[in-house]
Design goal:
By secondary structure, the chain is α/β, with parallel strands linked by helices. The protein has 13 helices and 14 strands. A five-stranded mixed beta sheet has the order 3-2-1-4-11. Strands 5-14-13 form a three-stranded mixed beta sheet.
Amino acid sequence: MLEQFKNTLDEPIDVVIAWVDGSDPKLTAKRNQYLETSVKKKLRSAHPTRFASDNEIRYCVLSILRFAPFVRNIYIVTDDQDPDIYTEVEKFFPTKTETIKIVDHKEIFRGYEKFLPTFNSISIGNMVWRIKGLSENFVYFNDDVFLIRPVQPEDWVKNNRPVLRGRFMCPPFMKLLKLRLRKLWNNTILKKVNYEAKFSFYVVQWNAARVAGMKFRFLFNCHTPHVVNRKKIEEFYSKNNELLERNISFRFRNISQFNITSLANHLEVRDGNKNINNLNLGYLVPSFYSESKLSRKMKRCEMDSRIKSVCVQSLDQVGKEDQDRIFNWMDNFLNLKE
């Protein structure tokens, strides 16, 4: 099957998936211990839904094997856990079992063990480039992102440079001002010393843009596979180790952080990468939608051939009937029916 990609795939491409089983009692106890000792309230970033797993990892991995067969290795980054998907990989893709590799946080945080354990997807993401043997250009997935159509290597890497997906936006100055005023109000007027500002996907991306030297715009991306150049991140952090340490020091998500995918994008923009394409994704939040709206969004994903991936968020917040509906839908996409 790799023969068809030989002319376009100059270098190997690996995939990295960040995954956690939030129902694991050991992990829950560990997380609660740090909540009790570090803060006196329940953080938004520590809400159980942030760590829930409803078999999304199964579909994430199988979708990559189905629609991106050129991927060399799939690294699943975990905290002393194992998603145990080998039986299904063996069943549907028997030649690919050796390509699934489990990477523990201890490996990517080697030399930075003082920041473990961490329950922060941003902190973890900022360290995945340290996986041993990782390809120069790799694709970073969250476990709730699935491919639904064939992907070609040039969808992710063109002329040996990452393909960036997003749109340029003005800095979120008004959002930042509102967040600061709200924090000031809660800290000084309401005396909420431990007040936590609401997490903002826009702000953490703007934080990354500023770090990369952007001043007047930033490339906003969304819930899609992200291509990262490992060497560029390694070079950046070799010169900015204090910045790295501060960014991974938060055990739970913090609005002052920046994520690795946005940092990688803006380093590419800064260095003249012109491989910038539109977002080609579907985005589903079943817990927010009526049945008819969910049906419309699923139908659009089926009909729009430009959509290559779909993110399905917070499946733990819907009932079994809706979960089964999504999983059956994915089974059809991936041709996994018995």
